[in-house]
From TrEMBL:
The keyword Transmembrane helix applies. One of its GO terms (biological process) is transmembrane transport. Keywords: Cell membrane, Membrane, Transmembrane, Transmembrane helix, Transport. This is Putative spermidine/putrescine transport system permease protein. It comes from Sagittula marina. It is found in: Cell membrane. It comes from the Bacteria. It holds the Pfam family BPD_transp_1. One of its GO terms (cellular component) is plasma membrane. Residues 85-293 form the ABC transmembrane type-1 domain. The keyword Lipoprotein does not apply.
Length: 303
């Protein structure tokens, strides 16, 4: 009897393609590991700690690590805390719209009508010049502008437009809105300008050759292509406005109570559990806002 032997492939050996793919995965993991470690140490773990502290037992002058939901129940049943959530969301929405209304025309002018890149850069730097000074100085500088004897009331009275000073301009929600709009408007201008400046001029010229008006060009070309910049600017403004406390405390005379002010006051009173609850609620709100914004435009595709 003749025995026939066949050479079977050695499945224990790794093919060159599989080895190359494994090496690429290891290289990618090595490149990502520092960033992942940084995120875990300085974002995930602190956030988990804040959530853990929010369930601690809070007494008048002390806090201990006995877990309870008392702080959450008190927060969610308090008209003061719930009112702070409503005020925070209302001011965020108004400031977001105001920065878009004020910032978009500026970005449109710089990105579309200014052709010289040096001039574009100079105009963007001019928008950033206020950030060369302290944040608190920029906030407090609105007081002599909006006060009853401030510049705005003085000018209006000298022009005969009003007979007595307008008292709602300072130490009110209006002053907070004005201050936040001025401070954070540049964060809306920058991303929108970047996206508008990327629009191919030949596309706009082709639309003009076909007889499209400026309104049609703006509605069908400029606005859709600038939406990623609008979303990025909205995320920047939202994160900073939702976490605000200094502008509200300085310009409202502590009449406007935001979630940020709740956190600061609770930390100052050593009520860590209540502050942690407010911090978790604020984080949930910010996460929801960012998630909603990213669902409007796929930044990974558009950028």
């Amino acid at each position: 009897m003749t025995t026939v032997t066949t050479d079977m492939p050695d499945t224990t050996e790794t093919s060159p393609a599989a080895a190359r793919e494994a090496n690429e995965r290891r290289r990618a993991l090595m490149l990502l590991s520092p960033g992942l470690l940084w995120m875990i140490l300085f974002m995930v773990l602190p956030m988990l700690m804040v959530i853990y502290v929010s369930f601690w037992t809070q007494t008048t002058f002390a806090v201990n690590d006995t877990l309870t939901t008392a702080s959450w129940e008190r927060f969610l049943s308090s008209a003061t805390y719930l009112g702070a959530i409503g005020t925070t969301l209302r001011i965020w929405a108004i400031v977001l719209v105001a920065t878009l209304v004020v910032g978009y025309p500026v970005a449109l002018f710089i990105g579309l009508f200014v052709k010289n890149q040096t001039v574009q850069t100079a105009l963007l730097v001019a928008c950033v010049i206020p950030f060369w000074t302290s944040f608190l100085i920029r906030v407090i500088a609105w007081r002599p502008m909006l006060g009853t004897e401030g510049a705005i009331n003085t000018i209006l009275m000298n022009l005969g437009l009003i007979n007595e000073p307008l008292t709602f301009l300072l130490f009110s929600e209006f002053s907070v809105l004005v201050g936040m709009t001025q401070i954070y408007c540049v964060f809306m201008v920058g991303p929108i300008t970047f996206m508008i400046s990327r629009i191919d001029e030949s596309t706009i010229e082709a639309a003009r050759d076909l007889g499209a008006s400026f309104g049609t060009i703006f509605r069908r070309i400029v606005l859709p292509l600038s939406m990623p910049g609008v979303i990025v600017g909205a995320i920047f403004v939202s994160v900073m406005v939702l976490g605000e406390f200094a502008t509200a405390a300085s310009l409202s005379g502590r009449k406007v109570n935001l979630l940020g002010n709740i956190i600061v006051s609770q930390v100052g009173s050593l009520k860590w559990a209540f502050a942690a609850v407010a911090g978790v609620v604020l984080t949930i709100i910010i996460t929801a806002v960012i998630t909603l914004a990213l669902r409007v435009v796929d930044l990974r595709k558009e950028m």
